[in-house]
Amino acid sequence: MTGFTFTFDGRTCSAAPGDSIAAALAAAGQGALGHRRSGAPRGVFCGMGVCHDCLVTVDGRRGARACMVKVAPDMDVRSENDRAFSPGTVPPPPPTEEVAEVEIAVIGAGPAGLAAAIQAAGAGASVLVLDDRDDPGGQYFKPRSDGCRMARALDRQHRRGAALRAEAQCSGARIVTGHSVWFARRTEAGFDLRSLGPLGGLRVRSKAVILAVGAHERPAMVPGWTLPGVMTIGAAQTLARRYGVAPGRQVLIAGHGPLGLQLAAELLALGTRPVALAERGRPGFGASALSALTAAPRLMGDGARYRLAVLRSGIPVMTGWEVAEIHGAEQVSGAVLRQIATGRSRTVDCDAVAAGDGFAPQIELARLLGVPVTADPETGEIRPVRDDAGRSPVPGVWIAGDAGGLGGAEIALCQGRLSAQDALAHFGHPVTHRGDADLRGLARGRRFQSALWSMFKAPSRATPTGDTVLCRCEEVTAATARAAIAAGARDPATLKRETRVGMGRCQGRYCLPQVLRLLNEAGQSVVPEALFAPQIPARPVTLGALALEKPEWGGHRQSSPSVRPNRDPDAPLSVAAADLVVIGGGITGVTAALFAARSGASVLCLDRGQVNGEASGGNAGSLHLQLLSWDFGGKAVGDGSLQLRTLPLQKESIALWRDLERELGADFEMAVTGGLMVAEDPGQISFLEAKAAAEARVGIHTEVIDGARVRRIAPEVSDAVIAAAWCPGEGKINPLAATPHLARAARAAGAVIEEHAPVRGIARDGKDYVIDTARGRVTASRILIAAGGWTAAIARMLGCSVPIRGAPLQMVVTAPAPPLVPCLLAHAGRHLTMKQTAAGSVIIGGAWPAATGAAGQPEILPDSLEGNLWVAARTVPQTASLHVIRSWAAMNIDIDGAPLIGPLPGAPGVTIAATANGFTLGPLMGREAAAAALSGRLRQDLGDFTMTRFTQATEKEPT
């Protein structure tokens, strides 16, 4: 097949057979492929589908990774903007799903994965290999494309890769390429894996998993590193080695290690002479070089040939130098190099920068499967735990190659075979491969790696400062992160909630190591349990590809929540006595602490983990004023009257939210946008009409409007929607912004808030209570329990029983998107809530249940995820075009559809405050509970929401 043409933003471009979109556009000199929501340009960066910065719209389908998708004749490619849809953007077709059952699933078709597949299939095991790329081989053994512009013959690396692929194809293993694994979980029967490819989904049930997903390159975080034209050395090498395309006309290479030398030699073979090669180390040729030569003479020979080619070309080779700054507006225009030892700088003109700062294992699937990790706070490196054979502490999971730490292709080949051999033995398969040679090869490879990095030894790169971007996805600067740490963020999860670092498309892969280093510099030790939570999906996937209709749930999945792992207890509590102890640091607890402290009481607020760390920080941020569909009519608990009488309280609480935001001069990202509850058939319209009439009786204005008016309010709503209930008083708020502001205000008012202080027991001591925590005891005459799903457990410490149960629910969030959901959106007949944040992400929920994992913590249910997304795409079809970047489960509570507030019977001086609609009602519940706790009197109109309703019901039951 000869060359062909395609269009990019209407401009005709040429391509060669097998080109990726990124390669064809790089050959055409096109660097910028789209814009972030700030308007900043973005382009190819990682070259291997990790960063999601090269997204383009292809033939109307949004979210294609230009570095991974092959260009085709007459393909219509358009740049992608987070703030607007490209012309002609259409939702993807409905998904399909195949189910496969195998003994061993190998994830990753690089050297380790292919070696493992060959070994296992050769012993008679059924093996399935899944890989994200179109062709097996991984980063090291990637083949040339059909139309590669490189004139020289295949080198030894290419030939070895071709031989390995051929052997794998003949081994009997099934190799599925172009598939991203988005879900992985251990089950009683083995493992459940789910992946997505261009033709649909694949669900794999296996008895064992070998993770061979490799590593990704760590970026050199300097000013300008997010500009188009800046890419990793590996991305530049893929362009050159696979497609025969140079990343620019004037290329600066700035890295650490031998990969930069190989890239320089390959660019020279293409006829492109790099402007300079800056190497952070100062490689010498003493004992380390001799040791490396002894361990791997061929690799050292390859390196010598690369170095000779570079020296002959006259490229300036600057050892002990690093890139310090990159200049440009829409594209790289130059860079500043700095000599590490002296600080001397030099400016170079360039239109492309290939830069890197080492490698990091891809740990996402390992963490989803429960593999423990270690974290080095000084380097930021995070590694999964495994032994020499790749065996992890999780039975049935092996980790081979660079997925467990950088070792290179030779180690990966050995460890792939060793992992397969160990997995076969685990199942009782006859093993014909002794593995002695691979163990020797593993030792030899490690000697080579040790000697190599001794040769290239260099000081660690300094952590980012000032306006240098720390999180390229969310455009969070180093200064913002440092300020949050200075203000009290002591772990990655808190920093994420405070700044949005790690919330973007790369899901924290790039910024998390730097977050660990920044926290370490501030004296904060980080345990692995405090890392960003592993994400489902493990990589961003198109919403429409996950949207499958599932049965609506039949009620909450009740759970007794366990304690989330916390770091070791801090210093003893800072106070030994208080007028009021508030148990729970969610929205209700911190608001209660605020108002109680303002009234002059001494207040201690205790949280077993972190403020806003559970349901308050994990909810979707809806401000509800009309009844949700499951709180009215036949779906409601009881007769629905209590839920209806809650609405005036919700109206009052929304007004209180607004007052607090104004009073504190804070930005809660609150907006009263109105809310639509849509209907698709006459029966749902009748339901909405009855609901609106009931709401009117308690003073809530809701009107039923026709489809035309619905689309004037929300133009992207589906044509299937024929009416809706419109409630102008509804809206949204950002829980990650609001609760921390209130906690700071409570502290400013004199309240003491102690985190990581789980309550272990409560005892009566005369008129007072002694509350025993992991950090000491405190005495108080009054207690307010605002512990959400943990309220019942606290009440049991007092010998009391309350009808509050944990109810794990899950939510989903997309990448930033153009305006789609202008108001709070719900459905009259299905479980759905939707809203769009100030950052542009669409948050999707609707009380779809989560599961309770083995550790007692909420975890995502794939069926709930798929069903929730199906309802969302059915209601707003264009949401199907968006990328889902994360989902999460939080422990909501289930009472009887209404709040519970007031004295705890049998425990004088103890007040409880809990509500399933917690964030809307949170500040009002906190204020009134604090007043009741201190005065002993509850506001008269709250009398219907006390424990009395349960004790009266019990008394009325027949004997």
From TrEMBL:
InterPro entries: 2Fe-2S-bd_N, 2Fe-2S_ferredoxin-like_sf, BFD-like_2Fe2S-bd_dom, BFD-like_2Fe2S-bd_dom_sf, FAD-dep_OxRdtase, FAD/NAD-bd_sf, FAD/NAD-binding_dom, Metab_Enz_Cyan_OpOx_G3PDH. Residues 103-411 form the FAD/NAD(P)-binding domain. Residues 470-521 form the BFD-like [2Fe-2S]-binding domain. This is Ferredoxin. It comes from Meridianimarinicoccus roseus. Pfam families: DAO (PF01266), Fer2_4 (PF13510), Fer2_BFD (PF04324), Pyr_redox_2 (PF07992). Keywords: Oxidoreductase. Residues 579-931 form the FAD dependent oxidoreductase domain. The keyword Oxidoreductase applies. GO terms for molecular function: iron-sulfur cluster binding; oxidoreductase activity. CDD domains: GlpA-like_Fer2_BFD-like.
